[in-house]
Amino acid sequence: MIYRRKLRYLLVESSMPIDLRNRGAEDSLMHELAKLMGELEYFRANVRLAAQPSDTFFILSLNRGYEQSLTLALTFVKKLGEKQIGLRTIRTSGTIKSLKDAYAKLTRLS
Length: 110
Fold this sequence. Notes:
Elements: E1 7-14, H1 23-37, H2 39-45, E2 48-51, E3 57-63, H3 67-76, E4 79-80, E5 83-84, E6 87-93, H4 96-109
Helix pairs in contact: 1-2, 1-3
C-alpha cells in the first residue's frame, strides 16, 4: 500500500529582509530551527523552504503534525548569522496556493 505524504505549509514574516535563496542564509535558519526544536523533532518534521515571494516573507513546508513545534521554534529565532531578526508565523495551510493568495491579500492591504 502506498501512502501519500501529508504536508503543511507555513507563511512566515521576518522583521528585516533576508534572502533565503542564498544557501548560507537558508542553512543558518535551518541550523537555528534544529537547535531550538531538537535534532530528532527537526528531522521528523522535515522542514524545507518551499518559496520566497518577497524579501520579508517566505513559505516553509513540513510534515503534518509538527506545525506547532515549528511555529514555537520560529518565534525564538533571534539571530541569523550576524543579523538580529524576528520571525512570525502568519498562517498555516495544507496548500501553497492558499498561502500565496493570503500573501497577495496582505500586500494589497499594505
